[in-house]
Amino acid sequence: MGAPGIESQHRNQGNGISTKQLPLVDLARHGETAWSLSGQHTGRTDLPLTEHGEQNARALGERLSGLNFELVFTSPLQRARRTCELAGFGAVADIDPDLLEWNYGEYEGLRSDEIHAVRPDWQLFRDGCPGGESPEQVGARCDRVLSRVRAAQARVLLFSSGHFLRVLAARWMGLEPGAGRFFVLSTASLSTLGYEHNLSQPVIQMWNDTRHVVTDHDPAR
Known about the structure:
Elements: E1 25-29, H1 34-38, H2 51-64, E2 71-74, H3 78-86, E3 94-95, H4 112-118, H5 124-127, H6 135-152, E4 156-160, H7 162-172, E5 190-195, E6 202-209
Parallel strand pairs: 1-4, 2-3, 2-4
Antiparallel strand pairs: 1-5, 5-6
Helix pairs in contact: 2-3, 6-7
């Protein structure tokens, strides 16, 4: 399939390859849930989308209309699967367990201020979660996803959760998993990973695009 839209028009004069011929990876964060709205860490708790979340999942589908994807993958969690379905890709998406959100272990369901009340110096992207995953473990899952994505050599669409996708972006750029702390994502946002001149030059072409979102009151946690 072709890969129109969201692409640079630069050309590498050395190898004659336009960047619009290089594969792209689009990242869709799931729509709003009750816990994304309240700021509670939502790892493996399988929450549904709110009504507002479903509305913006449909808006995300409109944003993606006209784009062609060779492969579509979604997290097995219902908030990602439902976003995928409402965006119009449920029938063609494959479920990938590696796209699950960060396992927060003992911090599941807690807000950051509640965690800091007992552990003031805690940082997710540095310390991970007791009883859950470390940044390195999440990074290893991201690397498996990216290995499959790169092997496709085509445009791919991924539906997952905020913290996981932030680590995935860091790993795409060759950065340590903890560098995901630099990339903030809102619910129902769209981001695009790609290349500049060739496959040895990964870049972030677009990040946290919410132009399609009706009203975003998620604090982008």
